[in-house]
Amino acid sequence: MNDTYEILSLKKYFSFVSRQKNNTTLNTIYYVEELLKNYGTPPTQT
Q1: If phi over 0 gives left and psi between -120 and 50 gives alpha, with beta otherwise, what is residue 40?
Q2: Which of 10, 11, 39, 44 sits at a 20 to 30 Å CA gap from 2?
């Protein structure tokens, strides 16, 4: 994936979140975890 595509995806996602306020924090965490999987970055484990 290139940076432009990633940025567009983030903009699309966050505009969706701004319209749908239920569970925004949970959705954001889930989306970030999916991004990390998609871009091959291991999620941080505590």
Answers
A1: left
A2: 44
